[in-house]
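Re: the 197-residue chain
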Amino acid sequence: MSRARHREPVPPEDVEAAGPPGDPDEVARIVCLRMLDRRAYSRAELAAALHRRGVPDDAADRVLDRLTELRLVDDTALADGLAVAVHRERGLAGRAVAHKLRSRGIPDDTVRAAVERIDRDSERLTAQGLVERRLRSLSGFDPTVQARRLVGLLARKGYPPGLAHEVVRAALRDAAELADGDESDDALSEDSSEFCS
């Protein structure tokens, strides 16, 4: 049986120890700094958190403006860093990166600027790496099944269909040539062993 957390009410004599209800600016500042202590947040994410805490909009705007002025809140830096990291580490295409940034409340112009840093060549290389890694685990499957699963993988990562099909076709062709080469090498080994005996 689980027990719900229950806080004891503050006795009347300890009201001062619990602190005043708080100046809205001070509450906003504390909430934002605590959040920013854990990770970077966009201005929109912080504004939403302040709204949930009941901080008036004018106090939230003043605090967010000050934090932006101090560069503790910087949507451009957040978008640039997140775009590159998500593209490299998770293999997301530019389109998926843009969606992720927009979901964090980053303005469209900032999203566009961050995603422009992911060029077509970078997307192609990342897609090839994803396909190469995944293809190893699909080695026992029919090439049609491999192709379908690999294209699906790239589609989920936000890659355009044309690029996905192109990368998958090339990888499957290379894998087939490599397999044919291995079979030829095996046949040559068997033939040469006959001559040596």
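Confidence is low (pLDDT under 50) at residues 6-20, 184-197.
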